[in-house]
Amino acid sequence: MFLPPQMQQINSAIAHHANVDLYVLRLDLIHPWVNGNKWFKLKYNLLEAKQKNCPTLLTFGGAYSNHIYATAAAGNLFGFRTIGVIRGEERLPLNPTLSFAVQQGMQLVYLNRETYRQRYTIALREYLRQCFGEVFIIPEGGCNLNGVRGCTEIINTAEFDTICVACGTATTLAGIALSLHEGQRAIAFPVLKNGAFLAQEIDSLLTNYLASGLPVPNNPGSWELVCDYHFGGYAKVNNELLTFTQQFKAAHGIPLDYVYTAKMFYGVMDLLQQGFFAQGVPQRGCRRHRLLLLHTGGLQGNVGMEERLQTFSST
Ligand SMILES: *Cc1c(COP(=O)(O)O)cnc(C)c1O
Asked: Does the beta carbon of 66 lie inside 6 Å of ligand 1?
């Protein structure tokens, strides 16, 4: 049902001049709907729900959330009832993300921003239980230890020197860090403003994971954050990013999503021009630096983003 992710080499003059071989792992192609890193974050959550005989999944997200989209589709695929708790007021007609979720059988409920902020409190949990009965709760973005565990299965090979990933909650980065081999490093590109706070989140995800007794593929390897490519904040775009995304697709045949992967790929191409990647990494032998970028999916969100951009430009 799920395809193994393809590894694709990118022919880029910029990478070539930087003495770097550039590869992309196409997690966006593993399934038409349940794709990218979101499937890896859901996998062990669904397994735990099944083990606990809990037929209903409940999760949280914004109105354009890739995680809501993937949870609705995965729930439908594996026979769970799904409830999506959406941040903000209901807007009709539903945007493409939410209308897909409803088509997949997801029941939507809306919480205003104030209440949504309290989503992990005991009081709100109790309220949700009164409304929906026993439900298996998956945190926003699939950010829990089951999520990290799934992400340890994304890539496990000594072939690359550096692995880059776009970063929201850092669950994916934590999983990658736990599966690095000797001498490899992971670089996370936060897509939100002031992403440096994520270092603490990553530390605590890793500490909690190691304390949990869940399987650890390798010793946690070295990781770092590059916080300069958020383009003004979460889901913010500018013309430079839009142009880059179009040109990248035209040149390499790879579509990128504006919220996550476009920002990371842009950052990587920029850093390549600065000679960033060969620094600070012991070169093994004299071969070229091998750099892997994770395409974590998220393309469903481009439909809604393009609609919004058109509305802005026509008003
Ligand atoms: C959710 C998402 C991310 C961020 O993953 P985290 O584990 O929250 O850091 C990256 N890329 C895409 C396309 C996503 O949808």
From this structure: yes
